[in-house]
Amino acid sequence: MLLHARGIVKSYRRRRVLHGVDLAVRAGEVAAIVGSNGAGKSTLLKICAGLVTPDGGRVTVRGRLGYCPQNAGVMGFLTPGEHFTLFGAGRGMRRGAAARRGRELARALDWTVNRRTLAKDLSGGTRQKLNVVLAALGDPDVLLLDEPYQGFDRGSYLDFWRHVWDWREEGKAVVVVTHMLNRLDRVDQVLDLSPRTATGTTL
Ligand SMILES: Nc1ncnc2c1ncn2[C@@H]1O[C@H](COP(=O)(O)OP(=O)(O)OP(=O)(O)O)[C@@H](O)[C@H]1O
After folding, report:
1. How far apart are CA 196 and CA 149, in angstroms?
2. Whether residue 178 has its Cβ less than 6 Å from ligand 1
3. Whose CA is nearest to atom 17 of ligand 1?
4. Domain membership of residue 33 as a residue range
5. Ligand 1 pocket, 76 CB below 6 A?
6. Can you give the pTM of this predicted structure?
7. Based on the domain organization, do 76 and 116 belong to the same domain?
8. Over the stretch 63-99, which tens digit does the pLDDT of each residue have?
9. Partner of 124 at 20 to 30 A CA spacing, among 73, 117, 156, 166?
């Protein structure tokens, strides 16, 4: 088991969003989190990433974790290459290795990195690709991806899902928040956080 969230409870201003949610993802598994807008999908992912503290419950992560937030967390006045260096350093990678790996991951998403363009001048979809690349830098064991393909064109979207199946083959635990229900037959488990299923339903 690489990711185990047990009995996660979270309220914002006395409004309960998560009512004791469980999620267990093993090595080589892909889990999808689905549910209506505001159901708490991003909140659960942030709790799993250690960015938000739950009111109750516990999260255990084995190995390294990569997180791709819903809203691109990139820095406008840095180039993609500088992002690779900075995020790579945070994961113990040397500058050259981080740059090479970043460009390689970008190419696999059909993006050829231009050395001079600042992140603020990238298109929305390309900025989101940068976000996915940063999450995957340093070969994490657990990948948490919050609707990561927003703005991707069709080819890049298919490339993204190919990446997800490759990560599964490599034995990673992958969690994807998604509204794209046409992929659900290919994932290993689906956690539905819609309000009617108060504690989340594993489908
Ligand atoms: N920091 C916060 N302070 C107060 N309320 C918050 C905060 N973060 C989230 N919420 C509220 O918690 C609820 C769940 O939000 P969350 O972003 O987790 O939902 P979601 O399922 O990811 O939604 P979407 O599908 O629209 O992305 C929403 O009602 C949201 O307004």
Report:
1. 27
2. no
3. 42
4. 1-63+141-203
5. no
6. 0.92
7. yes
8. 999 999 987 678 999 999 999 999 999 999 999 999 9
9. 166
